[in-house]
Each structure stands twice: as structure tokens, then as C-alpha cells.
Amino acid sequence: MINFDFMFDDKKEDYEEILKELRGGKAQLIDIREQSEWEQGQFKCAIHVPLSELSSGKGIEILREIKQANKKIYLHCRSGNRVRKAQQILTQYGCTEFSVIPLSMMQMLEKGFTLTA
User: Fold this and answer.
1) Pick from 24, 42, 44: which is nearest to 33 by CA?
2) How far apart are CA 97 and CA 104, in angstroms?
3) pLDDT in tens, 17-46
4) Region label for 28, one of left (φ > 0), alpha (ψ between -120 and 50) or beta (otherwise)
5) What is the spatial distance between Cα 89 and Cα 10, in angstroms, rounded to a whole number?
6) In CATH, what class is 5-110?
7) Are the C-beta atoms of residues 64 and 95 closer than 8 Å to each other?
8) Side-chain half-sphere exposure of 80, counting CA atoms within 13 A
9) Are the CB atoms for 19 and 28 separated by under 8 Å?
10) What CA–CA distance (Å, rounded) separates 43 from 32?
11) DSSP class of residue 33?
């Protein structure tokens, strides 16, 4: 089931909990930005599965493997807009157990997420 909670409740403790899950290996952050954006900088806890690959079905298997490992999946992009497109695409492939982080990357930094060097 797609979790839309974070689109409506922007509570600091929710993002602190997400960070704990990510850092503790209980969840995986998926960056759906394109390759050129990823190369400019990414969050330490993220893996890269571009929206263009999700659109063609290439990245779906990665998400299934993460779910099979009993990890929560959180999607993010630069501004929060592409995660909505990703929701539609993933639903078409039967991938519905994920949450979105509808914040911009700047807002995520404010919540405690950190970028790689």
C-alpha cells in the first residue's frame, strides 16, 4: 500500500524516525533523479534508480529485492514532483509498498539528511 502520510503530516519526529530506519538498515532511500543530477550530489543513505529506468521497468527488480529483504522503501527526487510520477509507474508494475518523501532536497537537508562529499 502506498503511504501518503508524509504528504500531509510534516512532523520533525517522522523524519527523524525515517533517518533512524535508514541508518539502521531497516529501510532504503531511492533517489529517482536522473544520472546527471545524481553525479552532482546524493544523500549518503540513497541508492540510484532513475525515473527513466522505472518508466521502462528496469529498476523494478531492485525495489522488489529491497522488499524481499524486509526493508521499507522511501522515494525522493530533487523537488518532490517526480515521486508522484514514480507512484503511478510503480503501481502499474504492482509495486505499491513504498513511501514518498515529498520534500525538496534542501528541505531534506534541513531535516537531517546528509549529502555525500
Assistant:
1) 42
2) 22
3) 999 999 999 999 999 999 999 999 999 889
4) beta
5) 25
6) alpha beta
7) yes
8) 11
9) no
10) 12
11) S
| Cα–Cα distance, 59 to 27 (Å, whole number) | 17
Question: Any alpha helices (H) in 31-81, and if so which ranges?
Answer: 35-40, 51-55, 60-68
Check if the beta carbon of residue 49 is closer than 8 Å to that of residue 32: yes
Q: What is the pTM of this model?
A: 0.85
Q: Give the DSSP per-residue string, 68-109.
A: HTT-EEEEE-SSSSHHHHHHHHHHHTT----EE--S-HHHHH
**Could you tell me which residues come within 8 angstroms of residue 76 by beta carbon, excluding any fewer than 6 positions away?**
29, 30, 31, 32, 43, 46, 83, 100, 101, 103, 105, 108
38 or 9, which is more confident: 38
2-16 exposure pattern, b = at least 16 Cβ within 10 A, e = fewer: eeeebeeeeeeeebe
Q: How do the domains of the chain map onto residue ranges? A: 5-110
Across the strands, what pairs with 75?
A: 30, 100
The number of CA neighbours under 13 Å toward the Cβ of 115 is: 14
